[in-house]
TrEMBL record:
ATPase BadF/BadG/BcrA/BcrD type domain span: 8-305
InterPro entries: ATPase_BadF, ATPase_NBD, Euk-type_GlcNAc_Kinase
Highest taxon in the source lineage: Bacteria
Organism annotation: Amycolatopsis albispora
PANTHER family cross-referenced by the UniProt entry: N-ACETYL-D-GLUCOSAMINE KINASE
Protein name (database record): ATPase
Length: 336
């Protein structure tokens, strides 16, 4: 299968692999645990990826003989710096999966999944937050995306922590009254929010459980709670600033640049939140086209792979039709 593309999306919580041929047909697929090298290390990451590539071949009924295809397109969370990409590129090259290989951050896969040509700006807000942009001339703009030490604010884990923080302070008197307090208690089924704090402290609840508080935060904000709304407003501003900076840096303030929003947090919020992000971004790019994309990022990795092998437009459209995923789009003028 010399025209086969091995497409990989390695997230924090799960990893997807697709085998796609040059016509855009998905021949095999596999899903496994998170394989971000930042979390599990490069060696464990590569071992997980190879198991899943072999499983995808089994699903396709293909013999897993190296090289597996003509190109490997691997996009993973945690590849935030060129040095990290270089290390994983070398480790995957040594496996001999394909003659050519592209490695990058998974936000690039989101950008490709949501855009017509792979150019534009994408902001992802899932467990963490990140933004990348690609200009028509191929120039790339991105941020280190290493958390608070690199100036980041937001992401599901952070928002959940904020919700818990305000609930604790409301309960013990250090902060204002907020409906987050009863909402957090109800979510965890406790009489006091301090019980949640104790369980986290003693390892009876794991840190990722705070991600569950994201929808709680947005639901409480939608009722008019000022404390919760301030947190949501901060997220809206952060997403808008990320997109705005990339649009300016790449000279995409004119025309109709595509701005893609994705990740579990942004695909789960109510339309008014997205509308406010759009309103703020349009101060920078008045005629930008916004899409909220809820599609497996591995589809974007596969599209990038088809780009790399020179597949035709029909092949890419075939893959998109099978995958679907665009849940909202708008092209409103700056005056709304």
């Amino acid at each position: 299968m010399t025209d086969l593309v091995v497409a990989i999306d390695g997230g924090n919580s799960k990893t997807d692999v697709l085998l796609v041929d040059a016509t855009g047909t998905v021949l095999g697929e596999a899903r496994g645990p998170g394989a971000s090298p930042q979390n599990v290390g490069v060696a464990a990451c590569v071992e997980t990826l190879e198991r899943l590539v072999l499983a995808a071949h089994e699903d396709a009924g293909l013999a897993a003989e190296r090289p597996f295809g003509v190109h490997t397109s691997a996009y993973l969370a945690g590849l935030d710096l060129p040095r990290e990409e270089e290390v994983l590129h070398a480790a995957l090259t040594a496996r001999g999966w394909s003659p050519s290989l592209t490695v990058g951050n998974d936000t690039f896969a989101l950008l490709r999944a949501g855009t017509s040509s792979g150019t534009g700006v994408a902001v992802v807000c899932g467990a963490g937050i990140n933004c990348v942009g690609v200009g028509p001339d191929g120039r790339v703009h991105r941020f280190p995306a290493l958390g608070r030490i690199s100036g980041d604010w937001g992401g599901g884990a952070h928002l959940g922590e904020e919700a818990l923080w305000w609930a604790v302070r409301a309960e013990d008197g250090r902060g204002p009254s907020t409906a987050l307090l009863p909402a957090v208690k109800a979510h965890f089924g406790v009489d006091s929010v301090v019980e949640v704090v104790h369980r986290l402290h003693f390892g009876e609840l794991r840190g990722p459980v705070l991600n569950e508080l994201c929808p709680v935060l947005f639901d409480v904000a939608a009722t008019g709670d000022e404390v919760a709304q301030e947190v949501v407003d901060r997220l809206v501003e952060e997403v808008s600033v990320l997109a705005g900076v990339s649009l300016r840096e790449l000279g995409l303030t004119g025309g109709s640049p595509e701005v893609i929003l994705g990740g579990g947090v942004l695909t789960g919020v109510a339309e008014p939140v997205i509308a406010e992000i759009e309103r703020r971004c349009r101060k920078v790019a008045p005629h930008a086209v916004f899409r909220v994309v809820d599609v497996a990022p591995v589809v974007g990795a596969a599209l990038l792979g088809l780009d790399a092998i020179g597949a035709d437009v029909a092949a890419k459209e075939r893959l998109r039709l099978v995958s679907g995923g665009v849940v909202s789009e708008s092209r409103r003028d700056s005056d709304g």
